[in-house]
Amino acid sequence: MNKVMASFVGVALIISITIVQPASSLEKSLVEWMEYSEETFKYARNNNKPIFMLVTAAWCFWCTVYETNSLESADVAYYLNNNYVNVFVDFDKRKDIVAGRFSPTGLPYTVILSPTDEPLASRPGYIEKKTLLENLKKTAEYVKTKYKPSTIDEAGQVANKLDFVPTDNDNLDTALLLMQAIVTNNYDKEYGGFGDREKKAHGGSISFLLELYKDTNEQKWLDMATKSLDYVGGAIKAGERSDAKPALSYLIKLHSDREAKGWVKKIGLLQREDKIYGLFDTVDGGFFRYSLQKDWSLPHFEKMLQENAELIEAYLKAYEITGNTRYKELAGAALDYAMNTLYDKLGYFYGSQAADGVYYHLNSSERKLVSPPSIDKTGYSASNALMLIAMLDAWQTLNDTKYKEVAVKVFDFFIKNMITSEGMLSYYNHKSKKGELDGQLVDNAIFALALLKGYRTLGDLNLLEQAERILKFMQSNLHDSSGGGFVGRKSTSKKYYRTGDHVSTNKPYVGNGIAAYTLLMAHSATGEKEYLQTAKETTGLFLAEYPNASKPWFQRVCIKLKKLNYEERNSLNEN
Question: pTM of this prediction?
Fold first, then answer.
């Protein structure tokens, strides 16, 4: 990388990009945003302009700060419009691109590409206006006077080179032991959870610990899970706040006056002085996305449908095992939050509620004086599937029919609007009132799993038929019949891609883990041996990749396969 970019970047970048679907805050932007498309990149090449790419999300607090304080400044917008081709990337809508060549290390994420789509620079986080403008000018000058395009073609993605491992019990036991070791090594013995700095809840990993306890009856797994859930839910240091909370008048002003000088520093000071512990919102309900400190203080206040669904499932499992009513209360409060705040009467759940650095420092009566954080009303198939599973678990565990009624409506909406001949669409666009983006592995696999869960709990044969319809699409379009496993995407939605982008031969670990588990559940529901065989082949392909395969879905797959192996062995012995 040329020295001209050193102050802007910090690290070199080898990446890919996402689509432009302007967030609500940028619909009337001063910046002339273009879509991630073949036409946009051709325009950049033909006009010899570098590409300024912004990766952001509707829920991201610092994205809004960056947009308001830096990008929407008249001088910055003017310079961008005249010297760059500006591409806006929605992190949630285009997980397919984000998970490819390009993987943000934090949001907002600023990326600079050459006119020929070569990476020049990137930087996560908020960039102050003066610094941004200085480096934009340096980069544009560098492209005009010194940049020479590479002759290396970086288009396309390379498939994983994986070896097949038999899924016998010895290999499954070895895999599970290594997975357990990874979870244990990452577990924080002092505060629960995983990692020693920023803390995400990792509801799926907590559920794995609970499943391990049920499978082995080893107390340590239950202790790790419950300690993590206690800290996430704020039971430890519950309601603990400092005495340094500013006056209400100051907070109201801080909430509204976001363009005032020094506002960013004041927000940082507020978070440190009026510390909040745990990820549970004690006023509105629901869970925040993660905390900045290992003791679960300084939460990042965005609330994601996916993380809430995973935690609801974990708390319900913990309640079933322990009978601790605190877990029941937290699950119920999160379910109520989802139904009251994130549920659309059409029959789907919204994707997220944005973060707000001031709002969550107000109590219940004070919050009524300001507008709540905005909501992304997009209906994402994957996160709706996880919430469907949580709703069905809640109906079974809490014996409340309201959860069943909501689940039935959500199934009906997605069957009518989102399942097509090209499989499951990725998201429902509430503005155009239609589904968008086909051919994505994760969206197809996880929604098929939700349908299978619905069939088992509701007894509705149509749900099984719809699940098999999706699985048939996956087998025909995403399964690698010669090399095993599933590719990440094979989309017909060419308007969302550049040439070569609409098909990815990469085989993602998470997507394949979900696919394998879904196929196992389909085998249990139907007895079809093809589902079991494909699941075993997919699992065997990834068992050699223990660190990467040690994700919650492959953990569940290994436990399920072991049980099936034992059942098969017992059946043979009986015969």
Answer: 0.89
